[in-house]
């Protein structure tokens, strides 16, 4: 493989770029920490779906917080024994069930 250096590169024409006055975003210190008054509206309105509303008001307690606290305590104490092979096998089985 050889490189032909006899061909001159093409010239690029000059581009006329005009300076634009760009507004810079204010620094965090410059932003007012005053809360927005209730009478002011931002113009954005959000309507949650019925499913989202049901999720927010769900009180079925799917999470066993007592068991979770015990697991966290065991992790913090270094007493939690994890079988990485069992975790990996469960993940692989789960992937194949999705296919």
From TrEMBL:
Domain named Anti-sigma-28 factor FlgM C-terminal: residues: 47-92
SUPFAM superfamilies named in the record: Anti-sigma factor FlgM
Domain of life: Bacteria
InterPro entries: Anti-sigma-28_factor_FlgM_sf (IPR035890), FlgM (IPR007412), FlgM_C (IPR031316)
Keyword vocabulary terms for this entry: Bacterial flagellum biogenesis, Cell projection, Cilium, Flagellum, Repressor, Transcription, Transcription regulation
Family listed: Belongs to the FlgM family.
NCBIfam families the record matches: FlgM_jcvi
Function field: Responsible for the coupling of flagellin expression to flagellar assembly by preventing expression of the flagellin genes when a component of the middle class of proteins is defective. It negatively regulates flagellar genes by inhibiting the activity of FliA by directly binding to FliA.
Protein name: Negative regulator of flagellin synthesis
Source organism of the structure: Rahnella variigena
């Amino acid at each position: 493989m050889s490189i032909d250096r006899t061909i001159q590169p093409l010239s690029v024409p000059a581009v006329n770029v005009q300076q634009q006055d760009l507004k810079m975003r204010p620094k965090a210190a410059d932003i007012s920490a005053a809360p927005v008054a209730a009478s002011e509206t931002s113009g954005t309105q959000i309507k949650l779906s019925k499913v989202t509303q049901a999720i927010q008001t769900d009180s079925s307690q799917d999470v066993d917080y007592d068991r979770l606290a015990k697991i966290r305590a065991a992790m913090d104490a270094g007493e939690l024994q994890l079988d990485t092979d069992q975790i990996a096998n469960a993940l692989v089985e789960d992937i194949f069930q999705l296919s």
